[in-house]
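Subgroup meeting minutes
Present: P.N., E.W., G.H.
Scribe: E.W.

1. P.N. recapped why we're keeping a running log of single-chain structure predictions: easier to compare across weeks, and new members can see raw inputs and outputs side by side.
2. G.H. added today's entry (353 aa).
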Amino acid sequence: MKFTRKITRRQFGLGAAATSAGIVLPSAARADLSADAEKALYEAAKADSEVTWYDAHHHVELAELYGKAFNTKYPGVKVNVVRTTANIAYQRVAQEIKAGSLQCDVLSSTDISHSMDLKTKGLLEKFTPANAATVIPALQNADPDGFFHVTSTGTIAVTYNSGKVKPVDVPKKWTDLVDPKWKDQVSVGHPGFSGYVSIWVYEMDRLYGWQYFEKLKANNPQIGRSIQDTLTMLRSGERMVAAGSTSTAFESKVKGEPIDVAYQEDGTIVVVAPSCILKGAKKPNAAKLFMEFMSSPAASQIAVDAFGESIHAAIKPKAGLPLDQLKTIIAKPPLLLKAQPELKEKWRETFGV
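Output recorded in log:
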């Protein structure tokens, strides 16, 4: 898969408002799935009656919102939403496959190496949603063979408690987090649980070597599981700065909370997150319909309304700087897949968790 190092907000564009009755999309953001094909797939999905979705892309409330939107659009096909961190979802799928009792139909991980590994082992169903053709070109063909597809993107930057951190002290580079001035004030997630965090760890190690984390340890960071745990620590005032998700930070800021985002001079990390259908899924047609939905502009609108990124060019942003004004970092999937096991082990050895 080939990703560009710089992705413009024009490519990443996000747009029009959702209404209580449904999602209103600009004409340029219509789904590519034809009415006849959608009707046929919907009828087949109704025979399945439900689909089980393991989701690490979104926080709990947002995951449930996706499920509700799908249920409203396709009555008679229920989404069983199982929201968890990426690595827990992946481990759970692996355990189910080993036990011969697969429960998951669609897996949405924030760590693309999970999809790559499952594909390599022959554990994915090949399916390319028609709506995948509507995704911005930079994110299409994540897997040229059609076993997994990008259904979400996100960004990681320094997030902070603006009520406690003076503007002059806001970290400008990732290396600022290991400055002794932030001892007992840093919050991070855990790469053994969170796909976002595992990608952040990979990029920090690639840029600065493992000594970065040895210095971070000296600052006694508070380590949660999900990257969303960092926001909890900032809200409570237990920590002042974090390596966090920009979407939930901007959402909190708009609500009036003392939370803000600082894009780092050495790079804003872009997380490219795919979804896939498990081979042997119990509800294959419902899974395909759900993949169509997650690849559609309507799904992007839900993300944008929650201050996230879109995978469709016609959907406009709510918050944050245009990505073409930022230095962006995107991990190369093959290298990420190769590096993950060793990095997670080194993390446990260094931090003892």
